[in-house]
Amino acid sequence: MKTNYLNWLLLLAFSIGIIGAGLLMYDEIKTTNVCPKLLGIPACYIIFFCFMIPFFAHIAKGKNIIYFLFTGIAFVIALIASIMQFTGLGECPKTDNGTPMCYYSLLLFTILIFLKRIIMKNKKTIANNV
Asked: Which domain does 107 fall in, by range?
């Protein structure tokens, strides 16, 4: 029961992230000047795919290494972007209320990593008790 509840929370976090990053990516496609670039690639594209790939890995009950690889990459990008935003060395896209979106990305990827670890631990505990 607890794992089912955690799975729903995980899917909610994915939904928020995919919709947010997808809308930002759409804005980038329309205006080409919304997202900062990483090696010439808009960061919102990278973040969007770092939501999508782990989402499908989770749904398909695929390899956890793929899940953690892509959530980890996005976590590091969001952490660096958040530090740069906070120190004034960089500029993240902002929400309508002025909150930098990199802060939300950092929060969401932290939640995705944390929840997946708890779900894995719960499944291992359940398997050991059977």
From this structure: 2-129
Residue 53 has a CB neighbour count (10 Å cut-off) of: 18
In this model, does residue 99 exceed pLDDT 80? yes
**What mean pLDDT comes out for the span 31-35?**
86
The per-residue pLDDT for range 71-94, each reduced to its tens digit, is 999 999 999 999 999 999 989 999
Rounded to two decimals, what is the model's pTM? 0.89
Number of domains in the chain: 1
- For the packed helices 101-129 and 2-31, what is the interaxial angle rounded to 10 degrees? 150
In angstroms, the CA 61 to CA 64 distance is: 8
SS (H, E, C) 1-30: CHHHHHHHHHHHHHHHHHHHHHHHHHHHHH
SS (H, E, C) 33-84: CCCCEECCEEHHHHHHHHHHHHHHHHHCCCCHHHHHHHHHHHHHHHHHHHHH
- The residue among 58, 73, 62, 75 whose CA lies nearest residue 111 is 75
